[in-house]
Structure formats: structure tokens, C-alpha cells
Write a structure and sequence with these properties.
It is a single chain. It contains seven helices and 21 strands. By secondary structure, it is an alpha+beta fold. The termini are close together. Helix 1 packs across helix 2, helix 1 crosses helix 7 and helix 4 packs parallel to helix 5. Strands 2, 3, 4, 5, 12, 13 and 14 form a seven-stranded mixed β-sheet that branches. It has a six-stranded mixed β-sheet with strand order 6-7-8-9-11-10.
Length: 427
């Protein structure tokens, strides 16, 4: 049976209700998904098999934003990941961004997002040396803000910097990073930005990392939520944050050697780290999935590894030679101001009647026509129901068939403008 848990809300006259929701962001290098080469073949990197592994991982993480590197430049595979991986197992609300490939690479970036809370405003290529670096501008579907011509934006920059450990490779990575920061300084406004991808960095002293995080970036300084600078490559002091390679032996397509590099990152702007614009990084939420800190130079699947369920661990060991990284954002949004609150209704509660219905129970001061509004936590009006209430105790049934698991708000109001709000979780 589904359950509903009440959380106490403060009730005051003409109160603007603030709501907070969380947003999971995940980045993953998919290791030549759909891109067959001499070393990544139909036998050791089959896209059908990879789709099963990825479904298992995404079922576990449930990101609202998924960004990826190393997906084929062919539209066929962009759609397969959407329709055969994301919009499966009861999910149907994901969309993808348009593909870009100004650089003409065999492997590109892609962004997928949950349309129940997000919309895509624009896609821009901000540099194309070696590979495209893409800027995806998303906004939150907050009904109250959108009605006033406003919203909350989050900008996702996806980069796959030049691979290799030579001095020339390091220089190329630095050039790509400089191109990104210079474009932002010339063309963008500061705000909520995430910069993610496979950066192929061996140390925090590399020019690319210093460019992204240094003072020369001006209003576009990016912060590393882990705040663990140093020489990451083959260094056991950083075993807990290494993301590559997941296999000790490799597969011909997967790199071998075991976990010994930190290549995969999600960096955040100061707006996100400080919560300056309704979005804030949730402290301690940054993780490399499957990383327990005990597998330096080992396969991630070597037991014991209790950081994730066994099926997820197996999928991580086979899907790619990188671990995905994730973080959580807390999003503050304002619900409509026209929801006055007072104590006209007493003892308001809600409890489950069945898997698809709930009962509202409250005491009313007088008989009146009432309206029951159900809002998402982001302020979107989902349903309106009309009933009669009577003086004294009332019990009213409401239909919840169309609601998915998550946070909701029920607003009970009468024709005199009296109202009360309860927040509940459907699980």
C-alpha cells in the first residue's frame, strides 16, 4: 500500500509558501556507446548489452539530469538511449537535447532531462577544438514564477577534454578550457552553472583545471565540491575519488590497470555553491558511484564492495571503464502567493484509504463550498476538486491515481478565502 506522511507547515495570514526540492545530476562517460572501432567491437562493447547495464545503473540513481560523453555521433543511438534505457521500467518523461558535432568527432556529448520538472531553453556549442563543448540551458517548470515571466535556470556545460599524458595533450586540454572560460566571459551572464565531463586530468596543477577554478575566470570561477587538489594519478591518497579504470585486466575496449585516475568531474559555479539564485549544492552529495575507496589499482567489482547493490556493481564493471559521478542540488521555489493561510480549518490531516485514494480530515468552523488544490513541490497546479464542507468534523475522499511518487501540497480553501496547506509524500 502507498503511504502518505505529513510534514508540519507554518500557518500564518497571507503567507508566501517556500518549497524545496532536490535534483540529482549525473555525468557518465559511456565508452564508445554505439561507436564501433578496431578495439571497441561488437563482441566486447555491444550496445545492446550496454543498454541493459545502463538501465540497472539509472534505475538505482534516478537522475533528473543525465549528461554523457562518448556516445556515437549517429542519431540512432541518441534515440536508443532515450527510448530503450531512460524511458523504460515505468519511466516516460525524459527528453534529450539536440546533438552537436561542429568538431566532426566520432563520439560526442549528450544531455537527457526529466520533463516533469525541467525544460530545455537552448543548446550552444561554445568551443570545438578537438571536440565540441556544449552549453545546455535548462529551466525549472515552476508555475508561479513562469506566470510572472520568471523562472530558475541551470546551465550544464559538457566537456570531453583531450586524452593522453603527453605535454602536448596537456596543452590541448588547457586550450580547450581557456576557450570555454573566454566564451563565457564574452557571451554569458553569471548564474547557476555546472561544468561536467571527462577532463582527462592527471593533477590539479594542469592548466585546464587551473583555468576552470582560478581567479582568472572572473565571474565564471568553477568550484570543485570535493576540494581535494593534488596529483591524482596513481596516487593511493586519492583512492576514494578515482573514477577510471574500473577493471584491472581490461577488456580490449575497457582500459585496464584498476582504479587509479580521477578523470570525471562535476564542477559548480559560486552561485550554486552559495545558493545565490535558488539552487544550492547539497553538502556531501558528490560521489563517484561504486567507489568505496578500497579498490586502488583493483577492479571495482572485486569483493567486498558494499557501496552499491550487487547488480549495480556488476553493471558498473561492464558498462564503461569510467565510474559515473553525481551530486544533488537543492532547489528553492515559491508557490503561488494567492494561497492565504489561517486557522479557519482545524485538525487538518490526510491518510491513505487505498493505493489510489486518500482521506482529508478536518474540522470546519462553518458550512461552505470548498476547493481542494493539489500542487507539485515546484508549484505546478496538478488538480482541482470541489466539495461541500460542514460545520464540525469532515472526511473527504480524494483520488490520487495520476500522481507519481514524490512530494506534493494539498491546499484546502473555502469561498470566504480561508485556506490551509499540508505537505505530503506519496511513496
Amino acid at each position: 500500500m502507498k503511504h502518505f506522511y505529513l510534514l508540519l507547515l507554518f500557518v500564518v495570514t497571507v503567507f508566501r509558501l517556500s518549497a524545496q526540492d532536490t535534483l540529482t545530476v549525473m555525468h557518465y562517460n559511456l565508452l564508445n556507446y554505439g561507436n564501433y572501432t578496431e578495439y571497441c567491437t561488437n563482441s566486447n562493447n555491444n550496445h545492446f548489452n550496454k543498454e541493459g547495464y545502463l538501465r540497472t545503473i539509472l534505475d538505482y540513481i534516478s537522475p533528473q539530469i543525465l549528461t554523457v560523453n562518448e556516445i556515437s555521433n549517429l542519431n540512432f543511438y541518441h534515440e536508443r538511449l532515450l527510448n530503450e534505457v531512460l524511458n523504460t521500467d515505468g519511466r516516460s518523461t525524459y527528453k534529450r537535447a539536440p546533438a552537436t558535432n561542429t568538431a566532426g568527432s566520432d563520439i560526442i556529448n549528450m544531455l537527457y532531462y526529466d520533463t516533469t520538472i525541467l525544460s530545455l531553453k537552448s543548446t550552444t556549442v561554445i568551443q570545438s577544438l578537438v571536440r565540441d563543448v556544449d552549453l545546455y540551458r535548462l529551466y525549472f517548470k515552476n508555475a508561479a514564477k513562469l506566470a510572472n515571466g520568471d523562472t530558475i535556470y541551470i546551465n550544464c556545460i559538457i566537456a570531453h577534454l583531450k586524452a593522453g599524458d603527453s605535454n602536448q595533450d596537456e596543452v590541448k586540454r588547457g586550450e580547450m578550457a581557456s576557450n570555454v572560460i573566454n566564451w563565457l566571459k564574452d557571451h554569458a551572464q553569471p548564474g547557476n552553472y555546472l561544468l561536467m565531463g571527462d577532463f582527462n586530468l592527471y593533477t590539479s596543477n594542469e592548466p585546464a583545471y587551473q583555468t576552470f577554478t582560478g581567479v582568472s575566470a572572473d565571474d565564471f570561477i568553477f568550484y570543485d565540491p570535493l576540494n581535494m587538489p593534488g596529483s591524482w594519478n596513481n596516487n593511493p591518497l586519492f583512492a576514494s575519488i578515482h573514477t577510471q579504470s574500473v577493471s584491472n585486466s581490461g577488456s580490449g575496449c575497457q582500459a585496464g590497470g584498476g582504479l587509479d585516475d580521477r578523470f570525471d568531474f562535476i564542477l559548480a559555479s559560486d552561485y550554486i555553491m552559495e545558493g545565490s539564485d535558488d539552487v544550492i549544492y547539497k553538502s556531501g552529495s558528490y560521489k563517484a558511484i561504486g567507489q568505496d575507496g578500497l579498490h586502488f589499482n583493483q577492479s571495482v567489482t572485486n569483493l567486498p564492495n558494499n557501496s552499491v547493490p550487487s547488480d549495480v556493481l556488476d553493471a558498473l564493471g561492464k558498462m564503461s571503464d569510467h565510474l559515473p559521478v553525481k551530486l544533488t542540488l537543492e532547489v528553492n521555489a515559491e508557490l503561488p502567493e494567492s494561497i492565504p493561510e489561517n486557522d479557519h480549518f482545524n485538525n487538518f490531516s490526510v491518510y491513505p484509504l487505498s493505493g489510489t485514494e486518500a482521506v482529508l480530515q478536518f474540522d470546519a468552523v462553518q458550512r461552505s463550498s470548498i476547493e481542494i488544490r493539489i500542487y507539485s513541490i515546484m508549484g505546478q497546479l496538478l488538480d482541482i476538486k470541489h466539495q461541500e464542507s460542514y460545520t464540525g468534523k469532515n472526511k473527504l475522499k480524494i483520488d490520487l491515481k495520476g500522481l507519481q511518487k514524490g512530494f506534493y501540497l494539498i491546499v484546502l480553501s473555502d469561498n470566504a478565502g480561508n485556506s490551509i496547506t499540508v505537505k505530503f509524500i506519496k511513496s
